[in-house]
Amino acid sequence: MTTKNLQKSIIDRGPYASNEVFRRIANRASHGVGSPWAFVGAVLVIVTWAVTGPLFHYSDTWQLVINTSTTIITFLMVFLIQNTQNRDSHALHLKLDELIRANSTARNRLMGLEKLTDAELSELQTEFEDLAKEKLAARASKPAPPTSGSRGRHQAGASKTSSSTTGARSSRAT
């Protein structure tokens, strides 16, 4: 993309243009610094710095170089990592909202939970814990069906579904 096309593209997007530019930079940087080669490069920088210690007589300036460099890099990486985490979290929430919306037995009020207050989330957590207790109590009160030879290694009465500790329904069919 030429500079002129990039400038036109930025102008067309309006006030969110800087977000898009930052997103691109953050995405490329996070992929780059998350690679094994970036780790190898960082190790080489540290080894080079350590080897040059005797050359600079382990001076304060020699120590300041590595301290300042790592501080600046860490400071900048915080923003890149946060941006990547925010995007991943947002995408995950959208996917979960779509699954909830598409499932006819799911409660649509669970969509957008990330916007609830801590008190509302705590109340919902208590509700799920109560549902889990009820489900476990109902399973415990049911008599186990008779064992048949066709079940193979499965225990009598064992469920083929799994549920989390919150009592949420499993996505596996029974």
Give a written overview of the molecule.
It is built from five helices and no strands. The protein is mainly α. The chain is elongated and about 80 Å long. Helix 1 crosses helix 2 (17-33) and helix 2 (17-33) packs across helix 4 (60-102). It starts with a helix and ends in a 33-residue tail after the last helix. It folds into two domains: 3-106, no CATH class; 108-137.
Which oligomeric form is depicted?
single chain
Beta-strand portion reads under 5%
Overall pLDDT, averaged?
78
Q: What does the radius of gyration come to?
A: 27 Å
Structural class: mainly alpha
Portion in helices: 55-70%
**Largest sheet composition:** none
List low-confidence stretches. Answer: 156-174
- In total, the number of domains comes to 2
Quick tags:
mainly alpha; 2 domains; 64% helix; disordered C terminus
Topology:
Layout: H1 3-13, H2 17-33, H3 36-51, H4 60-102, H5 118-141
Please provide a brief summary of the model.
With 174 residues, this protein is mainly α.
